[in-house]
Design a protein that fits this description.
The complex is a heterodimer of chains A (401) and B (258).
Chain A (H helix, E strand, L loop, with lengths): L4 E15 L6 H6 L6 E15 L3 E5 L6 H9 L6 E6 L3 E4 L12 H11 L4 H15 L14 H13 L5 E5 L7 H16 L3 E5 L3 H7 L2 E6 L2 E6 L1 H19 L5 E2 L5 E2 L4 E9 L8 E3 L4 E9 L3 E12 L4 E6 H5 L3 E3 L3 E7 L7 E11 L2 E15 L19
Parallel strand pairs in A: 3-7, 3-8, 5-6, 6-7, 13-20
Antiparallel strand pairs in A: 1-2, 1-4, 8-9, 10-20, 11-20, 12-14, 14-18, 15-16, 15-17, 15-19, 19-20
Chain B lengths: L1 H8 L1 H15 L9 H20 L7 H22 L7 H6 L6 H27 L6 H31 L2 H15 L12 H7 L4 H12 L7 H25 L3 H4 L1
Classes of the chains: A alpha+beta (401), B mainly alpha (258).
């Protein structure tokens, strides 16, 4: 093992048996041998990497790519089928918070139990006790039974213990999202502090932003192999664009039109076909931030509609109304519908940030809704940039150094 | 050797799991930890009632004859049946955190041992109060017998806990095994009652010499025979090593099987 390395992983592989119908009892094992068919799934197909002492790395990849398995192998709760893992120093893993908590025992007693599971001796816990209680912000409640805690308090206590286990190597799985925003900020600065103290850190997370803020390098694991290694910014840009394309491929370029979604109106005119197309005129439902989107709605008229207007609205999947407009607001022109036709909303560069969106389309009349189709279209937006908020505002950044 | 040093590093975990088990068990009840003493006392009361009034027996103070053997037996059988589940019931921990897996059976069996010691204190109290008294010299041997039984229980728990992870039936089979085992161990009768030709077979049961030793010390107030001690020690050590070996083999794939 090289002097400067804290972790050396050499060509590890791991297979899982995935049972179709897993039997655990004697009857199931002896009688239904053939029912216990399984498939061998290669989760890791030869991964090698090194982590230098004091370095922080992030493992990224889509669900099931093998990143959590890698972390479990590092933690030694599982063993690789082949290959070797070498680690230098005391390893502490934050895969599970609040292990061994007993609801009837006080916060203080649970600190001792929980910390001991991380391998601390009584003396070491004594030294850290005040620090842990301070960090958890539970001074007044520390002698109450844990069952009286709110879930936020519970997690705060658990996190406080975990983060105060001083280790040479810290392995973390998706747990930085604890408590309210203030507590999260505190956890975050604690992480920075731990890193500054020279601890080697390996993080598995879906939050690319977090990894960018803490880690020096990102490892992108794809189908059990390392796909890319490098600065988080670079690897993540590649990853985001790959994931966006994947999604696009999976949805087979079809815009999804809901037949059963919320829809109301007086029926004088009805939208009967919707096309969502890109700059080349191809039908798609996944777009990159900044791409051209053209939404065309065909309608048929059953009865003449006077003073009509066409409208559109974008809702993020969590219900945030991102944008809405209609022909009346924009042009105040009177439209009369007397025969079948179409209306088009075109966005030369859609500046919505990554996420899933529902698009509502409507034909209205000043007296009320003619046909209000509240989630007519589902769209997914992806981006290579991880900017925050709802929409990208056109901007220029300048600075002098 | 590596295992021992690692277990030493995790000693606080063993202690705190035992503490959690002992303190947590009666938390929330009005009498709390007192139950640890009240329980065996009440049990003894029931046995006294039944065996000195209803089922009268030739053996003098049969309730004591039974009780001094029953408490060590309960320690063993709880380790056997309850200990089998100690990995499975704490699978969340096993799946998410690294620690030497041996910690769980050790903590479980040790906490049962502590329970037995507390119950034996009650027995001692009863021996004094009832005027039966005890033999100090014989009592000095008691810790050795307890250590031997502890090793035996631990060895078997290692095996059952590890196998249960792979084969859940073990948990249910153990209930009946434990009952059959109790009747083939001289807990409710003395070994003299066993027909001569079966007696050698009886001594293959690792619990037989131990129960005889407990009864020698606490009931007959005499030091157990050396032969009893030696055969108990051999079987205890043997099973402990087998247990450690089996557990070490099986523990590598716990997480995948759970």
């Amino acid at each position: 093992m090289l002097q400067e390395n804290a972790i050396e992983v050499r060509d590890i592989t791991k297979k899982f048996k995935v049972y179709y119908d897993k039997g655990h009892t004697l009857k199931e094992i002896s009688l239904f041998r053939n029912r216990r068919r399984y498939e061998e799934r290669n989760v890791l197909n030869g991964i090698s990497f090194e982590v230098k002492t004091g370095e922080a790395i992030g493992l990224i990849g889509h669900n099931g790519c093998g990143k959590s398995t890698t972390l479990k192998l590092l933690t030694k709760i599982m063993y690789p089928d082949s290959g070797s893992i070498e680690m230098k120093g005391r390893v502490s893993s934050l895969l599970e918070l609040g292990a061994g908590f007993h609801p009837d025992m006080s916060g203080r007693e649970n600190i001792y139990t929980n910390a001991s599971i991380f391998g601390l001796t009584r003396k070491e816990i004594d030294v850290r006790l005040d620090q842990i209680i301070d960090f958890s912000e539970l001074q007044e409640f520390i002698d109450n039974p844990v069952r009286t805690y709110s879930s936020g308090m519970y997690m705060r206590l658990a996190f406080a213990v975990a983060i105060n286990v001083n280790a040479d190597i810290l392995l973390i799985d998706e747990i930085l999202a604890v408590g309210d925003i203030n507590f999260q900020a505190k956890c975050f600065s604690k992480m920075q502090e731990i890193k500054a103290a020279g601890t080697t850190i390996v993080i598995v997370s879906h939050s690319l932003g977090q990894i960018e803020q803490i880690c020096d390098r990102s490892l992108w694991i794809h189908e059990g192999k390392l796909k890319a290694v490098g600065l988080p910014m670079d690897v993540h840009a590649e990853y985001r664009s790959f994931m966006g394309q994947e999604r696009m491929r999976r949805q087979r370029n079809e815009a999804i039109v809901h037949a059963d979604s919320k829809r109301w109106g007086n029926g004088k005119a009805q939208i009967n076909k919707i096309l969502v197309t890109n700059a080349e005129g191809a039908e798609k439902s996944v777009y990159r931030t900044g791409e051209r989107i053209k939404i065309t709605a065909f309608y048929k008229v059953n009865e003449k509609v006077e003073n009509a207007a066409f409208g559109i609205a974008f809702f993020r999947v969590d219900g945030v109304h991102c944008y809405g407009t209609n022909t009346q607001i924009e042009q105040s022109e009177k439209i009369t519908l007397s025969r079948d036709g179409k209306f088009i909303f075109e966005f030369p560069n859609i500046e919505l940030l990554p996420g899933d969106y529902r698009v509502g389309l409507a034909i209205t009349q000043d007296a009320g809704d003619v046909d209000y189709f509240s989630d007519a279209v589902q769209l997914t937006i992806y981006s290579e940039v991880d900017d925050k908020g709802i929409a990208r505002l056109e901007h220029v950044i300048e600075y002098e150094i | 050797m590596k295992l021992i040093s690692e277990l030493y590093a995790y000693r606080e975990m063993i202690f705190s799991l035992i503490r959690r088990d002992l303190k947590g068990r009666y938390k929330g009840s009005a009498l709390g930890f007192l139950w640890t003493f009240i329980n065996p006392l009440l049990q003894l009361g029931v046995y006294t009632m039944v065996f000195s009034i209803i089922m009268k027996n030739d053996i003098e103070d049969y309730y004591l004859f039974l009780f001094v053997a029953l408490i060590p037996w309960i320690f063993f059988s709880t380790s056997l049946t309850g200990g089998a589940n100690c990995i499975r019931t704490q699978q969340d921990m096993v799946k998410k955190i690294y620690f030497p897996r041996e910690v769980l059976p050790i903590a479980y069996v040790t906490s049962q041992l502590v329970n037995m010691i507390l119950s034996l204190l009650v027995v001692l109290g009863v021996l004094i109060v009832s005027g039966k008294g005890f033999n100090i010299k014989a009592l000095m041997v008691l810790p050795i017998i307890m250590i031997l039984e502890y090793m035996l229980a631990l060895g078997i728990t290692f095996i059952t806990a590890a196998v249960t992870v792979y084969l859940r039936d073990v948990e249910y089979i153990l209930g009946i095994i434990s009952m059959a085992w109790q009747f083939s161990t001289p807990v409710m009768y003395s070994v003299d009652m066993v027909p001569g030709r079966l007696r050698n077979l009886f001594y293959l049961n690792p619990m037989t010499p131990l129960i005889i030793a407990y009864r020698d010390i606490l009931y007959y107030k005499r030091i157990p025979e050396l032969q009893t001690l030696i055969s108990g020690a051999c079987l205890g050590v043997l099973l402990l090593f087998v247990g450690i070996y089996v557990f070490a083999k099986l523990k590598r794939h716990f997480v995948e099987e759970l």
